[in-house]
Structure prediction request, 295 residues.
Amino acid sequence: MAGVFCTILTKMPIKVTVRRIAQSLPHINRAYVIQKGPLVSTNNSRMPIPVYFFIHIPKTGGQSIRDHLIEQFGNDPAFVNLGPDGIRDDQEKGRLPFHKRPASERSKARVVFGHNVDRFTPELVPNCEVRFVTFLREPAAQIVSNYNFQMESNRREGKTIPDFESWYSPRPRNPHISWMFGHFLHVPWTPQLSRHDVVETVAATLRCFYLVGRTEKLSDDVKPIFEDLGFPTEFPRRNQTGKDFAQQLVPTDELMNRLRAENDLDYALLRRVFQNDSVISSPRASSLPRRLQPA
Prediction:
């Protein structure tokens, strides 16, 4: 399903299940086509310009990448920050939200980054070669890191600091899959979907990406993109637990094992996507060290 899934990634109806995706394939207005890897815009006859769309899943190393990009781009409109701080900065400086800016300005984008990047975002950038990028992290470590980070935010804002169980209990399990369904695909994750369908849907989506790397090898995996942009490949890590903010929770082995068991679909996803590799990348991305094999 991965090959055909790529062709409809940016145009798939929101109210859809995995089975309905397959049923709707012949009827989709495909504004993007897959050509041996990246999604390529076919909106007009001009040569598409590569644009990186970074999907920032919380606590996967995104702030380190974002801060390096900000330092390199400066105020250049080629960098678009769709994270909370970028949106706040636009408001403070009186800039229009990115989606309301004229096409002539949106077409200057070369990197679009943040929590609010989704499958529809490339439609805002005229005539672009779509290069989706994201990073995945060992799920139990991601959950603990997210808790510590949010508790530091609460502390700075004078808010209550709940214990881990109170914070974790109401949250959705499998944060990587939950983020991809809810924030990127905007597809409802319904109880009717089998565990296999859930994992395969997200795995098929990620196999359409230009690059999927691992947080544990962030510096190595993102390096080819910085090289392509002409930027230094060395950059400091930011927002690290125990260094940039206090470690409210030091997890026991028992807790980590429980988190692994309770978020098993995320682990199945990482096994499905990476198999025995640390990064997947598009066959068109000749500068990247490893290749994504066709599904």
